Amino acid sequence: MNISTSSLDGREVLYPEIDVAHTESWLSVGDGHEVFYEICGNPAGVPVVVVHGGPGGGSNPYYRQFFDPSFYRIVNFDQRGCGKSRPHASLHENNTWKIIGDMETLRMHLGIEKWALFGGSWGACLSLAYAQTHPSRVLALVLRGVFTLRKVELEWFYQIGANGNEMIFPEAFEALCEPIPVSEQRDIIGAYYRRLTGSNDKERVACARTWSVYEMTTSRLFVDPEYISRAADDDAFALAFARIETHYFVHGGWFEKEDQLVKGAKILEESKIPGFIVQGRYDVSCMCLNVALLMAYALLLVCLSCQNGVSGA
Predict the structure, then answer these.
(1) CA dihedral 90, 94, 100, 101 (to 10 degrees)
(2) For the chain, what are the domain ranges?
């Protein structure tokens, strides 16, 4: 693995905005789900699929700006239950392997033989899982803020007493714990999941806001009020984000083994899939340790002044 370091100075480094995608539609993927997708850029260009974060974060128009539109055919899609996909905030048949199946259905629907995968945080996790399942369909992996959904990562970020994020953002962590009785605080994720899937509508919305605000507050190096407002003011976004995220977390992502994605990196190496990782040194939600575990596989750029929010949730 080659490692280099860099420091970003805050200047704009993205391509100009693409106001309108040339294709927008929904694709029926089974189990009652319809996945929203859009395509922009060069119709004959190199295909790249943007794998958004969360789980449950949904795509964002500015993801288009990471690519040269004259060179790439840019595919954005909303994973099951979030963004514009239907039904909204649904947990029915919503899991890692179903989404990987949806990606394959979308790839074939669009007539794409192989595509590059671009994902950060949960998007990096899902990209690794897809590439290890369908290596022959992957041109390259470009990952930001690697997350592998191991127990140690979840406890670091969400669990009281883990000496993790609670030590870095104590005020935000206190706000996260506040709605949960002390008797349930040994399992913050489980406590939220019970409320987010319960029958009390008022409690469900309130917990969705609190959970989502905590993530938006702590996933960027400098607190961004505009970023936080998406969670605080948009109940539809917060409900999908919090419900789907806790759903995946309490089920361990449906991975057979705790370190499945780390061990599976050898598949990527054997398949000679080019890999590039950009990791924020101060990313508290996606550990630098995850990158170290993948160090035999990819070219790594460590950004000294970056965090998880390089490309959003």
Answers:
(1) -90
(2) 3-148+255-310, 151-253
Per-residue pLDDT of 265-287, as tens digits, reads 999 989 999 998 888 878 888 87
> What digits encode the pLDDT tens for the residues 129-150?
999 999 999 999 999 989 999 9
CATH value of 3-148+255-310 in 3.40.1120.10, 3.40.50.300, 2.40.50.140, 3.40.50.1820:
3.40.50.1820
Buried b (16+ CB within 10 A) or exposed e, 198-209: eeeeeebbebbb
Distance, in Å, from the CA atom of 50 to the CA atom of 120, rounded to the nearest integer, reads 9
- 291 contacts 306 by C-beta, under 8 angstroms: no
- What token pair was written down for 108? 């074939």
Place of tokens 């449906």: 254
Buried b (16+ CB within 10 A) or exposed e, 72-103: bbbbbbbbbbbbbbbeebbbeebbbebbbbbb
Degrees to nearest 5, angle at CA 76 with 70 and 82: 160
Calpha distance 51→48 (Å, rounded) = 10
Rounded-to-10 torsion of CA 97, 102, 105, 107 = -100
Q: Is 90 helix (H, G, I), strand (E, B) or coil?
A: coil
The SS3 assignment for 41 reads strand
